[in-house]
Amino acid sequence: MKVIFLGAPGAGKGTQAELVSARLHIPSVSTGAIIREAIKTGTEMGRKAKAYTETGALVPDEVVIGIIRERLSQDDCKGGFILDGFPRTVPQAEALDRMGITLDAVVSIEVSDERIIQRMSGRRVCDGCGASYHILYNPSGDGEHCDKCGKALSTRRDDAPEVVKSRLDIYHRSTEPLKDYYAAKGILKLVEGQEKVEDTTALTFEALGVR
Ligand code: AMP
Q1: Which end of the chain is least crowded, N or C, by CB within 10 Å?
Q2: What's the start-to-end Cα distance of the chain, in Å?
Q3: In a domain? residue 38
Q4: Considering the domain boundaries, does residue 58 fall inside one?
């Protein structure tokens, strides 16, 4: 299955993408996680991307399209994949079409801006493997360390309230038009984000026809 997750920053698309990935045994590809890793290790792409991500701006299309083209050509993506955070603009979606990829579904997790702003302050990310948690909705076992790799959890710099506001504006302006783009192809599924992760997951599986 080839699936895209859309949604505002903090809507929970990364969490749902991970859960669907585990259930369907297909990789979840997060451009945000790939970019954060490149920044951490100081690659050339990471150095270029750093200034954009810190202010909440989008990294230029040609950079992320290159990341995705390379990642999707790897063997583990042959049997399907989930895209979390790509595409984020219409030119990115058009580039994906040009790669000859036929998508099965595009799931948009719908959450209001007010709830997003409330939620973002509680988000935590693992410094080691990049796994995402939330202090209320999806806490790690001890609240401070990652359940998967044991490293410390921290707050993302781009989750600061003023950056969140700007990321939401960018989402509405640049990414939300993708809902019309994929609705026109007949593959858009809207999922109302719920308070509890497992409730959103149940709706997501239903939308994808996964039992
Ligand atoms: P995320 O973890 O998906 O919220 O992504 C974190 C940051 O990485 C975003 O705020 C952007 O700066 C950058 N980024 C991730 N995916 C994309 C994309 N598809 N296009 C442009 N920038 C992206």
Answers
A1: C
A2: 14
A3: no
A4: no
Classified as helix, coil or strand, 4 is: strand
Ligand 1 centroid vs 135 CA: distance in angstroms? Answer: 22
Domain that holds residue 130: 2-26+79-208
139-153 pLDDT tens trace: 999 999 999 999 999
For the chain, residues with pLDDT lower than 70 are: none
d(CA 28, CA 130): 13
Establish whether residue 68 lines the binding site of ligand 1, counting it when its CB lies within 6 angstroms of any ligand atom: no
Q: Which helix (H) or strand (E) holds 40?
A: helix 31-41
The residue whose CA has the least distance to atom 5 of ligand 1 is 32
SS3 189: strand
Strands lying side by side in the sheet with 105-110: 28-30, 81-84, 2-7, 105-110, 188-192
